[in-house]
Every structure is written in structure tokens, then in C-alpha cells.
Amino acid sequence: MFRQSKRRVLSRKNFDDQSTSSSGKFIMSATSSEEEKQLYESLYQSKLSFYNAPPRGEITLEQFEVWAIDRLKVLLEIESCIQRNKSVKEMEMIVKPLLQKLLPSSTASLLERKKDYYSHFILRLCFCRSKDLREKFIRSETTLLKLRFNMMTSHDQAKFVRTLDLPFLQFISDQEKEELSAELYQTISSALQFQLNLTDENQRRQYFNQEKFIKLPFESVIDLVGSRQVFIKKGYAYLPQFQQLNHIANEFSSMLSEALLRTFQNIPRLNEDDRLLPILSHLSSGYDVSNFLQQDMFSQASQGDVNATSVYSEKIRENFPLCAKNLMGGLKANRHLRYQARQQLSFFLKGIGMSVDDALQFWSDAFTSGGNMTTEKFNKEYRYNFRHNYGLEGNRINYKPWDCRTILSKPRPSRGEFHGCPYRDWNVDKLTLELSQGMNLTPAQVTSVLDSVQRTEYTVACTKVFEITHGGSTSVEVNDQTHISHPNLYYERSRQFQKKPSPR
User: Quick one: 218 and 268 in the same domain?
Assistant: First the structure.
């Protein structure tokens, strides 16, 4: 598989029984250019592939890393778009230039096909190692498949479908379509109007006459059945070609899920290859901005500065995102926080470097000052909970701080509660007042943030506030490099910015 250190690899016993594919050929062995060409012509009979067979042939370690990084950049952008609730059309506009640059598939280039195929399997090795990583990888790769499919011509789409060895994926005859034409047209007419923007009746009729239909068991497209977007007869759903992507994507997700589990089971066989493990570890750790918390990167910018006393200092608190400021304000005003808010703030403070001893001191002081609670009551009712958050009680799980997706999944705060996301939970007047007076945003800047809130892009709104308050601009497109989808990432970037030496 790699030109470098081939003898060293072949001598390792863990590769001995895994070096052949189902066809009997050595995956690690060299292949001629002609054999490679024939191989990738069979794998890429169209511009897309389901990645059913493992790659074989030789690539260099440099190609191994660079190809994987390029694909990872694409998947990161897709994940960022998903978190920002981008529509399919918006996602296509953002991702298409990146695909043309990093993962082109518009030509019959052998090198481009190899890069696409190898990079997919390399990232399988990276992201098979936990359920969370597997789910994110499947989601991103499935979205990538959909985007690429939509970018192809109808001819290329039909060619790709014919190459798939999927059960029941076959087109009905013209005679059967004619017999059911009234029912089929009535079913898909609204989809033609709203999905394909065919507002004219003659346009819809003309499109229908040319459209091909697939007949398959209704359980294969249960999501379309639930929304009444397909015609069903005798247990079979009749799927128009422009909606066949739902079925294809579901099959791809299922296939990839099973493949990732098999890869995970065979990961121990790689443990002796000291060339690959550092690369795989590095790639998997950078898959998602929220995963920076899994890399022992807590409080890198704080460097032990956060304790029970300093957390109240303006120098520390000015780096807090609005959600953390809201929690601290609620704690100061009420000398107490309810469960969801306690958890959210406790995990955030843990993430910025507050030790368990300082955390116990911080919460004890906050709850008992003012005479609202005795230290004995705090120790009896709350001490266990905060020690549990640090993995010192119960199942001793090292809980991670909540990312924005987790926070947004929690119930909205009711009266007297302070958890959640202010960009989602505050009314327009309260949010406007805080942005303009509390953060000194101009009216134009406030409008830009509120526009993102109106589109339910709450993490984008938070990112814009960060950019504005740290010398940036809202006119720059928020991407995977700038997008903030974790309160602790906001804090880390703000603290790093704060520590930069001022220009002379």
C-alpha cells in the first residue's frame, strides 16, 4: 500500500492474514498502471462510487496524509453547514468550489479517482473509533454523496444508479407508467412545483412525461411515505427519478455504518504500524471543532488562571460567551441556579480550567453567601453533584462541557431559569438591548446578528458577535475555520486574542 518501508510492513505478522482481498489479490502488492486504470474504471463506472471494495495498489505516506486532509476539509465544511441549518442550495454553493479544488470528479483522471477512493477509506480508519465519530462521519459522507449526485447531469445520475447493486432499484416499464399515470402525476405534482420550481402546469406535464419511476418496497422510503410524497400500490412505492436520492442515501448510510463497525473491530491489527497511528490520531482529533475538548486541550489559553476567585475578574469574564455571562449573572442575582443551569455552567467552568477543588469552593461561596444556605446544606445536597461532574463519584465518567448543539437540545428555560442559548431564548428587545448597550454593537451590527437569529442560525449569530467584539467584521462568510459551535471554543479563542501583544 505504501512505497516507503515496504519490507518493514511485510514482516509484521498482523498484516499477514489481512493482506488479501476477496479476489485473492494482495492489497499491499504493487499494480501496474494498466491494472490500476481497469480497477478504477470498474469502481467508477460513473462519477460517484459506493466504495464497496477496499483499495489496493501503492501510495506514499505523503499522499496518505494529504489526501485525507483534503477530504477532511470538505467534510468539515459540510458539518459546519449542517450546524448552521444551511439549505441544500446554499450548501451546494458553499461546498462546490471546495470540491472542485480538493476532490474534483469532473474528469476521468486516474489520480483524482484514486484520491477520492483512498481518502474515503483512510478517514474510515480515523472515524470508526467511537459512536459519535461514526455518526458524524456517516452524516457528512452521506451529505457529500447527495451534493455530488445533485451536481451531476440527469444522464450521469441515471448512469450512476445503473451501476448500483441495490435490491429493488429498477425502473418500471413505460406500459406500467401509462396504466398508473393519473395516480403518479397527482402524487408528484406538488413536489414538481415546490421542489423543482415548475409552476406552470404544462411544464409539470412535460417533465412527468419524460420522468422515469422506480418501483420498490414502501419500507425502503418510509420517510417519503410518511409525508405522502410517493404513490403506493400493493406494498410497493413508485418513486420518481428526481426523488430516488432518498433511497440511495439511506442505502449508502446503512452500508457505511456496517463497514465502520467492521473497520473498528479490525483496528487492533494496525497497532504495530507506528507510521500510521500518529497520522490517524491527528486526523480524527481535528474532525469537529467541538472535539477539541477530547484532546486534553482544556484551558490552553488560560494556563491555570481560572480559580474560585479569578473567575469573577473582568479579565476572565470578558472572554465568556453570552450564555456563560447569563449564567453567571443569574447565579449572582439569585445565589442559586436550577439543575440545567448548574450543569451547563459547571461543565463550562470545568472546560476553561477550573479544578474540582476550586469548583467546590466557587459553588459553595456562591450558594452560601448572603445567608440563603448553610455550608452543611450545600455539602449535603450539592457537593456530590459537582464532584460527579468531574468524574469523582458514581460511574466516574469524565463528562465533557456541553457544545451548542447539546445546549440547544435542552428544554427552553422557564421563568427563573438561566440555562440555554440567549440567541434562541431571549426576546428581540432584550437581546437588542444587551447587544447594543452591553456589548457596544452598532445598529447595523445588531441587525446583522438578529438576521441570523431570525434564520435560527444561533451559532452563526454568536460567531458574528465574537468577530465584532474581537476586531473582526460580519461581512466575512462564517466557515468551518471561524464558526463557533461550542461555548468553550468561544472562550479559548477570546482568551488567546486577549493575550496577543498589542501592536506598537
Answer: no
